[in-house]
Amino acid sequence: MPKSAEQPIDDYLPQNGNRGYRVSRYELDLQYRVISNRLAGKASITAVSTELRTRFALDLAQSLQVSKVTVNGARAKYGHQRGKLTITPPQPIPAGGAMSVVVQYGGTPKPIRGQWGEVGWEELTEGTMVASQPNGAASWFPCDDHPSSKASYRISITTDSPFHALANGALVRKQVKASQTTWVYEQSEPMATYLATVAIGRYERRRVSRDPVPMFVVAPPRLRTKFDYDFGRQQQMMTTFEKLFGPYPFDEYTVVVTDDALEIPIEAQGISIFGANHCDGRRTAERLVAHELAHQWFGNSLTIRAWHDIWLHEGFACYAEWVWSEASGGPTADQLARAARQNLSRERQDLLLGDPGPTLMFDDRVYKRGALTLHSLRTELGDAKFFALLHDWTAKYRHASVTTDDFIALGAHYTARPLQPLWDSWLYTKKLPELPLSGAVGG
What we know:
The protein is of the alpha+beta class. The chain folds into 3 domains: about 5-195, Sandwich (Immunoglobulin-like); about 205-295, Zincin-like; about 305-425, Neutral Protease, domain 2 (Orthogonal Bundle), CATH 1.10.390.10. It is built from 9 helices and 23 strands. The model is unreliable at about 1-5 (pLDDT under 50). Helix 2 crosses helix 3 (about 285-295), helix 3 crosses helix 4 and helix 6 runs antiparallel to helix 9 (about 420-425).
């Protein structure tokens, strides 16, 4: 294996991601027994090599056992150690060569434990859910587990018939056979591995809105009344975000509410997953409803190339909370920004937003300081130019990978004044800057 293959793709997650190829499609055929938590899978992976390869690797958790691997139809040798499935095809793969890789595997899936807790496949009281950010995808399928590796997906789930099974994309087939049901979903837009999800439970699915985007809920029937109130303003939220951020980037949007409580809601592509505790009938989680919806633009359509740019996901989604508050008659974004800046000023001043490090990348200060960076930019540009920039940003990089430098470069087109002092103070200085005066906001 060339020495370059040993160099980490991302210093934040040096064990994740693989060199030598680019995946364009995953087709996952999964059979899952809810009661025993047993998963049997076949992953068919379409890729192209980027250099001559005598062997290559996929990410796959050790809790799953591999039984067979083929490359371009021929049996291949493999080894599976420390979360890496290393495959040696019968013939070397030339640069630019097509790779059709099929991995048959199975076992008892478990979350991957790391410094951010447990991520990936998680058993619920009755069913399962997947929350993979940042490195949990390998807990349930072999993959190139890195946010810059985006591909289309077809996910087929066969499970016990009383259960509803959901995955990313459109439901293209549902087949009931004896006591089991097969659900097949097609996700045609490119998707990062950590955004792929499966949710299985005793759920009902219903449409809650047709316009401006078809919106669905998949949830236990007992939560129906509370959901209808707590999530009742999603349609207005979608209208507001389309106006301010640009067209919704997917065909539909689904909220899953598990029967269990969840510490925090999490985003997947086209889907957000909340816990039963987020349905309390009092709209106490509405800012989180806005946050997860905003991730469909910022994180799911526009996905960071490397984890050090995490503020491009979380800062934007946090700012969307403030924007929604302002649009729905609550405190203005400026009021919320000034309160957040006051709170942050009491915290340690040891965070570099543009490169927070793996330990701090999900620190709440990344979310709040990221949102404050955007509010400072909005104050500098004024509303018209700021939201024009966001429209441009979501259109230019729709379904693509992005960096902070991309955003800085685009922002330079919206003012004659140099923005570098703003970026330097908010992104690349640990000391918390002051917010500019708010004269331009709302103008």
